[in-house]
Fold this protein.
Amino acid sequence: MNILKEKTTFTRTVAIPGLLVLLALSLLCALWPDRTEQALLAVQSYVYRKFSWVYTMLVSLFFIFLLVLAFGKAGNIRLGPDNSRPQYSFFSWIAMLFAAGMGIGLMYFGVAEPMSHYVHPSLPTVANPAKEAMLATFFHWGLHAWAIFALMGLILAYFSFRYRLPLSIRSGLYPLLGERIKGVVGNVADTFALVSTFFGIATSMGFGVVQLNAGLVHIGLLGHTSFALQCAIIAAVSAVAILSAVAGVSRGVRRLSEANLCLAVLLMAFVLLLGPTTFLLSAFSESLGYYVQRLAGLTFNTFAFETDGRGWFTSWTVMFWAWWISWAPFVGLFIARISKGRTIREYIVAVLLVPSLFVFMWMTVFGAGAIHIDSHVAGGALSALADQPDILLFSFFGQFPMAGALCVLGIVMIAVFFVTSADSGILVMNSISSGNAPNSPKWQNAFWGLLLALISMALLYAGGLRSLQTMTLVMALPFGLIMLVLCFCLVRALHTDMLYHSSNLPYGSRNWDGSHWRERLTQILTFSQKTDIQRFFSQKVRPAFAELAAEFAGRGIDVEVNEGRRGALSVEIVIRHERIWNFRYGVAAERRSISEYLIDEENTPDVSTNKQYIPVTYYSDGRSGNDIQYLSQEEIIADVLREYERYISAVADDKKAMMYVDKGGYAIK
């Protein structure tokens, strides 16, 4: 009961409308599943038939837009202050975005999609169905799919960590709407993201549990498939996902994602080594080359001149583009959350290439492997199951010497993928519904996990999952257009960012005129210890700030001098404002290591320890600080005034001022 009494951080203007929409649509799909599905299928068919080219153009533009950003000047900008660094290791980062991005779909479609394209090719005149099957699979799961996720994550991460706005969809509209993102438009955008995330996870959970149930029956742990058993699976998976989400990203989600990736590599290695290894490696090389060769044509292809392939195109390519776009709010928010500190170039290249290459290898090992075994070993037994994806994976495993072990490992993989998709989804839903508020009570994560499990069970029982999936795909078109608007907003913000950071940054220590050179030489030959740095603060920094504060006060400007904001030994001078960021110039002592090369060299200053303490500045806008250990009291005052002049000039300039506007209390106070 104490948990329920904890104060909620839910944003009422998002959480309440979101819950009402979720419950209303879920009841609609549960009570009238057939009618709802028929109506939604009619809408989907119309949208796909009339606007399939829009999906193609949107995804193509997203992909090209990311390439332009990655290899342009904007690629050097960090997702956060200039001095920020990634929170997670590269392996942990890739593991988490991979688990959230594709998740259980790799297990469900790894064999099923290539086999389906092999049996039912895009055109009846296809000369080599196996080769074209792998090309289509690479296209649907490769660079374009990850471009959608990468773009959404980039927009959210940039505006959240660079502009200090909430980590939500509305923040991406700031260059267009300004303060109005706090109103109705922002609430609608976040509510849409909440509903889209919930339904995307719910449908994946419903269809994933069917495959997991089929696998347990296949290996003999369960005797049959039943609704009660499927509910038990959902309950077990949801319980683990809730525990992981409550533990947080670093302790729960990260560790599960890393384990998930390790298991995926292990399973893929087993299949690769036990199967036709030489063929699979050759197929990977050839399929990858064929994909690169055909990439431009595939990107813009709408089958306008091959009417026989229109049905295949809308059923597969358009469906996948709609599915990935519908997942973009969820996956993008999660990727953004774990990507602070990386440069735009590093982010785009890694998110596009690393998961795509892994997926290509995965689809080759499972998809091309299944096609090869079906043709040379199984005598068509696997292709006969092309329309039964729930059991196709386990039938594929049955063709190997260690079939039982592979099936068990496959079931474990499905379960872990299940959990990693659900726990990241729970965290994202809580983040959206609470306005990314810090220190949300743990019961809120548990609430979303429980609601997800209950609605998934209800829809599974009523047969409404198909309707829900169709609804999600239909919603993708308007959200794709919203993403296009967000691209425009990102361009405007990046242009402002580059204008601001390309300004000349005068710095006093670079303009030393040679006076007091003996004192400067003594400083150079001395590596400051704690007593030295304390003396520097007491004799130079504090007197400089006190003198400057008195001068500002005499001119009618209120100034604060604060101690201890950036560690025990730090002091800052602050000028507070209502509508713009506070001006801040601070100095903090940083402990740094001294190179072993310098310590071991004889003809250098004597060093008594391998540590030194450096006075480093920090500013309102998060820029990297400067070492001011060689400045005198007067030079420190001059340096503060240079920064203040730069600050006033930037705020006065219409083109640069947006960086300094206080956007709802997210600036450092």
Summary: Strands lie at 560-563, 570-575, 583-593, 611-619.
